[in-house]
Amino acid sequence: MSIRKSSSPGPPNNDLEAGESRSGGHRDEESGGPFDITSTKNASIERLRRWRQAALVLNASRRFRYTLDLKREEERTQIIRTVKANIQAIRAAYRFKKVLSQENGTSTPPLPTNGDFAIGQEQLGLLSRDHDVSTLEQYGRVSGLSDLLKTSLENGIQGDEADLLKRRNAFGSNTYPRKKGRSFWMFLWEAWQDLTLIILMIAAVASLALGIKTEGIKEGWYDGGSIAFAVVLVIVVTAFSDYKQSLQFQNLNEEKRNIRMEVIRGGRRVEISIFDIVVGDVLPLNIGDQVPADGVVISGHSLAVDESSMTGESKIVHKNSGHPFLMSGCKIADGSGTMLVK
């Protein structure tokens, strides 16, 4: 008795590598799209060529984008190298200048003679502007600067008229050019710009012309002339009132700026106006005082300054030998001390 083997009940096996059955393989290739390849072994050469071209295009675009990224990175690296090279060149130039000055034996900056004083106004201006502690050390710090200004850190300047005159001539006074106030004619022009007054002036001209035409020049000018006179009177009175008020505000501002402070002159404390302070004066500072001029700290106890009016920073700055520079217009927020005006 022979037993015949039956095939399995499942669907027939299709080998994807070997392709479909011989009867339907080519039919499936012809029915799909140009890139529809179910089997690579029996695929046509045309379809394989299309897949190869597509792969080359994709790889080329990726390679092109990668090349652009590399170029940008190279440009960025080149910019960073250029900046670093410039910084190193500037540092080398400063070091060379410093070494050259030391080799030439110039331990202190050149001091041009300024009449009776060994330091000039230009050098003091640079010192106040740059706040350079190293330059102050080259001058001999505060004690050396006081010697150059011919003043005593304990007793101050002499304070006589001859000494004050020499200091004002050499370094100038503690004032600044103020903007001139507006003249009376400016207020007169502004009063004239009022729209109501302009309409009244037009009405006055029209009334004057109509009256002269109808009644004659002897009696026809009364109405128009009266209106014009009233308008001119209002303009003059308004301008004069505004000008007088402006002068009063200017006087109040002058009184506000004219602060009285104590200075040490000839070993005594004298109260003077801040406009009378000269270079070389020694001033005591307390909480709430305004720094009347640029200077350096001689001594201080927990001295702190509010520099927000000058720098815009609300942070309180502590002043000591490491940070001795004071700016005019600042307020003493804490502590006390003495300063040398420069």
Specify the structural class: alpha+beta
Averaging pLDDT over every residue, what do you get? 76
Shape estimate? flat
Q: What is the succession of H and E elements?
A: HHHHHHHHHEEEEHEEE
Question: How many individual β-strands?
Answer: 7
Q: What would CATH call the class of the domain at 121-174 and 277-341?
A: Mainly Beta
CATH architecture descriptor of the domain at 121-174 and 277-341: Distorted Sandwich
Biggest β-sheet description: 5 strands, antiparallel
Low-confidence stretches: 1-32, 105-109
What is the percent of helical residues? Answer: 40-55%
Strand coverage percent: 5-15%
The CATH superfamily label of the domain at 121-174 and 277-341 reads Calcium-transporting ATPase, cytoplasmic transduction domain A
**Radius of gyration, Cα only, in angstroms?**
46 Å
CATH topology of the domain at 121-174 and 277-341: Calcium-transporting ATPase, cytoplasmic transduction domain A
Head-to-tail CA distance between termini: 132 Å
Count of discrete alpha- or pi-helical segments spanning 4 or more residues: 10
Domain Cation-transporting P-type ATPase N-terminal: 138-212
GO molecular function: calmodulin binding
Organism: Juglans regia
Keywords: Magnesium, Membrane, Transmembrane, Transmembrane helix
List the helices and strands and how they pair.
Blueprint: H1 25-31, H2 45-103, H3 121-130, H4 133-138, H5 141-148, H6 161-171, H7 184-192, H8 195-215, H9 222-257, E1 260-265, E2 268-273, E3 282-285, E4 295-306, H10 308-311, E5 316-318, E6 325-326, E7 331-341
Antiparallel strand pairs: 1-2, 3-7, 4-5, 4-6, 4-7
Helix pairs in contact: 7-9, 8-9
